[in-house]
Automatic annotation (TrEMBL):
This is Beta-glucuronidase C-terminal domain-containing protein. Residues 1-29 form the signal peptide. The chain crosses the membrane at residues 569-592. It comes from Arthrobotrys oligospora (strain ATCC 24927 / CBS 115.81 / DSM 1491) (Nematode-trapping fungus). Residues 434-459 are annotated as: Disordered. Keywords: Membrane, Signal, Transmembrane, Transmembrane helix. It holds the Pfam family Glyco_hydro_79C. Residues 412-530 form the Beta-glucuronidase C-terminal domain. The keyword Membrane applies. It comes from the Eukaryota. The keyword Signal applies.
Amino acid sequence: MKIFSQCQFQPLPGSLLLLLLSGSLRVTAIPSTVNIEIPVPAKDALLRSLDRNLVSWSIQNRDLPMFTRSKLLENLFKALATNIGIGQSVRLGGGESDKTTYGSDITITADKYRSGYYGAQAQGNVTLGPNYFASFKEKYAPDTRYIWCLNLINTTNKFDAAISTAAGVLEYLGDELDLFEIGNEADFYGSKGFRDSEWDASMMLPEWNYIADEIQKNSPNKTVRFMAGGFANPAYIVTKDFDIPGIIAAGYQSSRIPWYSMHLYPQSGCSGAVTIAPLLEHNTLSDILSNYIPQVAAAESVGAQFAIGETNTVSCVGRPGISDTFAAALWLVDYVLFAATIGIRRVYFHATTTGSYSPVIPINYSLDSGNYSTGVLPLSYGAYFISEVLSFNDTLLIMQIEGGNDTDYSSYSVWDETNKLRKIVFINLQSHNSSTGGTNPATPDTEVYSSSGPRPSTRVTVATPWEPGQELSLIRLQAPGSNSKSQVNVSSFTFSEKDGSVTNNLVDTIITVKDNGNVEFDLLASEAVLVQHYSDVLSNKHPTKSGSKAADSTVNGVVMRTRGANMSISSVLVLDMKIMVSAILVSALLAFI
Ligand SMILES: *[C@@H]1O[C@H](CO)[C@@H](O)[C@H](O)[C@H]1NC(C)=O
Ligand SMILES: *[C@@H]1O[C@H](CO)[C@@H](O)[C@H](O)[C@H]1NC(C)=O
Ligand SMILES: *[C@@H]1O[C@H](CO)[C@@H](O)[C@H](O)[C@H]1NC(C)=O
Ligand SMILES: *[C@@H]1O[C@H](CO)[C@@H](O)[C@H](O)[C@H]1NC(C)=O
Ligand SMILES: *[C@@H]1O[C@H](CO)[C@@H](O)[C@H](O)[C@H]1NC(C)=O
Ligand SMILES: *[C@@H]1O[C@H](CO)[C@@H](O)[C@H](O)[C@H]1NC(C)=O
Ligand SMILES: *[C@@H]1O[C@H](CO)[C@@H](O)[C@H](O)[C@H]1NC(C)=O
Ligand SMILES: *[C@@H]1O[C@H](CO)[C@@H](O)[C@H](O)[C@H]1NC(C)=O
Ligand SMILES: *[C@@H]1O[C@H](CO)[C@@H](O)[C@H](O)[C@H]1NC(C)=O
């Protein structure tokens, strides 16, 4: 039997279908000017703290070794970790979790795991041994932490598959393991014949508890913790009691369960028609995510946190022309920030070695439907932009800017714990198609659309509590168009297509707060902007090309500052200023002679 966790059909509820339909009939556009205001103090009730691992990753257990065949994922993780100040959180799980067994005497070599041995035989079951861990250990950015999803389907020998796998995971991952999950998408077990059709959360509980207890018994020196849930159905199509309020009522509630999760694929790639349009509709996204408010509330009512434990643009490994476009990067940004405003703490983006929705493609391979080769996809730049939003040496909090959203745009304000405004994010989701950057060798070519007419631009004015004259950094998540698959960057910051290292450093555009506290900027259709104090940029570490130097320049009267490996840039710039000031004084003096 072939099961792909991301392969389920997830019909959209009627209201969303209507929205999608009306969206395609209506011609919407962001106005050419948008004025928004950020009142102070921020309303405490609306502020939600930002988890540094807001963007997290989900990878099939068996696929992680293959990702070590290139440095792409490692270098992506390093860049993200540098900005957020901690390692990435990776959930190792998916449909294969429920086919996985473990044997300490299994001698499959690390190289064989890396070769894709199990990827090629996805129909079979997956047997891991110690070399599985050797195949990727030390090959990821330091401080990467894992969540491991265990097999709940296989009941043989009192769940020996789950319990022996857990022992191996604890032995080899040690403290890098944050949490276990038990069972992937168990809400489908009844309908797929792995359990009785009446199977519900209360029937699952004794099995789940038995496995959890055994794992804890075998590891007396470590407090083992779990993420419970992991259901396939989204919050708007819950079956039985398989959602967070349901399982808490059934008894999944203890200090060993600090996290709950559910999965979400807003479009189903297994059942036909999928389009790029919903990726660029803020209202569609916010309507879908608002269904999770009761899930978050349930988790928080027992002192736990809620995550979207597996997600991406389109289920069934994504769809070229949608998942691999710049629209997906903009969608990721709006998705995780909106999620954070309603208390969803983390969002785990699912990746496979053969998926157009992955942030990077680690290996070359051919499918009947098209050829893939190693490279970086736009989603990585969305994740990178978010790491810039999260970069700060203290806790940050987020809320939507009231009155600052519509179908085509959304905006967020980010605050520190003393209720000071720190950052502003504005996302322009208006579609713009370009024939530039329309292909990427990493994923199969699809039809390249091109919009007629010039790319629309919007002038945004934000009334802020910031002091007039203060220097701000403005950075852009940008590409030739929403359909672009390549030529994406964050204010010139780019990853190498070969190994994911930094090829171009980020260039901050410097703007200043106006006399009335207003902040003004222009942004194009399909572009996102982050504005913050330049001094905050300087006080945080950023990934840069090794050995590169920070530099100043002026382009069309706009001051640009390139970040460098030597980020004691503040002293450099202060020095520059002094030299400039004395140069001006000298020339003024000379003028008088
Ligand atoms: C698991 O592997 C065994 C041995 O290779 C095979 O006989 C069996 O069919 C596999 N089970 C499934 C569910 O694929
Ligand atoms: C179930 O797990 C046992 C190990 O406990 C393994 O021998 C068996 O092949 C597994 N069955 C399937 C269908 O994966
Ligand atoms: C637990 O820790 C104790 C003391 O450090 C040690 O003697 C014992 O072997 C450990 N047990 C296991 C199962 O690792
Ligand atoms: C994939 O590449 C091979 C050559 O390596 C070529 O023969 C084949 O036509 C390509 N497949 C597709 C779908 O483009
Ligand atoms: C992967 O494919 C790309 C482009 O088709 C090619 O340039 C590269 O040499 C291939 N790499 C390997 C390891 O085969
Ligand atoms: C964060 O940086 C600011 C400015 O450099 C400093 O005043 C503050 O103490 C730092 N906070 C922490 C928690 O490091
Ligand atoms: C977002 O926009 C919708 C539609 O204009 C509006 O009803 C809603 O209140 C807005 N949200 C916020 C936080 O302003
Ligand atoms: C861009 O192309 C997509 C089809 O991929 C279409 O749905 C969309 O309306 C186009 N946008 C513009 C502004 O032409
Ligand atoms: C970044 O993207 C912008 C807009 O698409 C483009 O003008 C610029 O050349 C790109 N820069 C780099 C370094 O890729």
